[in-house]
Amino acid sequence: MTSLVRLVAGATGVVGLVVALGSGYLIVRGPFLGGSLLAPRPLLATLGAFIVGIVVMAWGLTQYVRL
To answer: Which residues form the DUF8132 domain (predicted)?
Structure first.
């Protein structure tokens, strides 16, 4: 049973990492990579997704290591 719980926790951490990386790219691509800056509302939504991704990643990987 612990193996299944570790698998779920690890997958949750990886999903959080993917969300954080994807939204981080959308935030950074405008000012630093020569792309256009997002409009204010999509930029705020992307920032929210980045924060949620970091929290989910930290929770999932912490649970993975603790189990």
So the answer is: 7-66
The pairs formed by 52-55 with CB atoms below 8 angstroms and a separation of 24 or more are 52/16, 52/19, 53/16, 53/17, 53/18, 53/19, 53/20, 53/21, 53/22, 53/23, 54/16, 54/20, 55/16
- pTM over 0.85? The answer is yes
State how far the Cα of 11 lies from the Cα of 44, in Å rounded to an integer.
26
> Mean pLDDT for the chain?
92
